[in-house]
Amino acid sequence: MEQEGGQQAAEQLLREVEQEIRETARYTGVSGLSEAVKEALRTVPRDAFVPDGEQHAAWLNIPLPIGHGQTISQPYIVALMTELLQVGRESRVLEIGAGSGYQAAILSRIVAEVYTVEIVPALAERARKRLEALGYDNVHVRQGDGHLGWPEHAPYDGVIVTAAAPSIPTALVEQLREGHRMVIPIGRPWGPQVLTLLEKEAGGRIRSREVLPVAFVPMTGGGDAADR
Ligand code: SAH
After folding, report:
1. Closest residue to atom 18 of ligand 1, CA basis
2. In total, how many domains does the chain have?
3. Within 13 Å and on the Cβ side, how many CA atoms surround 133?
4. Using a 6 Å CB cutoff, which residues line ligand 1?
5. Is the predicted pLDDT of residue 20 greater than 60, yes or no?
6. Which residues are within 8 A (CB) of 57 and not within 5 positions of it... i.e. 6 or more apart?
7. What sections of 24-66 are H helices per DSSP?
8. Is the pTM of this model over 0.90?
9. DSSP 44
10. Are 104 and 110 in contact (CB under 8 A)?
């Protein structure tokens, strides 16, 4: 019974996300969801990633608080960013801002390996335990400052940043494989931000495109000297 209810909620959420994707296609350039992204949204239990007090809203297309002043992103944004990355079964992806672990779990259904960095120790620990308990064993969680990326596993076939930065951290560009993409909200803390899509061309040249105005929590931590 309960599982049936969950499935219905997941289908309803998927329909709402697909509708919003269609409505925003003109400026995002994303006109529909791939089968892989749809299947991930259907099967990853979002209720397992939101706190007890937010369970009633777990399957709604809205962001929710996860403690420590942080949020789990709106499912539409998760779907859009995942689609923009254009990653597939062989890809290895770096995420900055693990938060609840939901975006990482979605990616884990689509790509080979997910490396995710979270700066708040308690959130990193909780995300690691949760992902492990749910069996998402191709997600690797590390506690640390995402400005530095995760050099040991670079280069990545996609980089997704889920906290807003005033500028693009140079280490993340370095750790992106040529011919591949990064999605990152750019803007001042709590100021206007724009979701930005970067493509690192062969030879290292960067092309970028502004996709959508967004509201992410700020990226904290020191960063490196080159970013200041
Ligand atoms: N992707 C998450 C939502 C992220 S909210 C999910 O699916 O639930 C943004 C997260 O980025 C927060 O958890 C915040 O603690 C983290 N964060 C902020 N600055 C960071 C930094 N410099 N390095 C790593 N994580 C950071």
Report:
1. 219
2. 1
3. 10
4. 70-73, 96-97, 99-100, 102-103, 117-120, 123, 145-147, 162-163, 217, 219-221
5. yes
6. 50, 64
7. 25-28, 35-43
8. yes
9. S
10. no
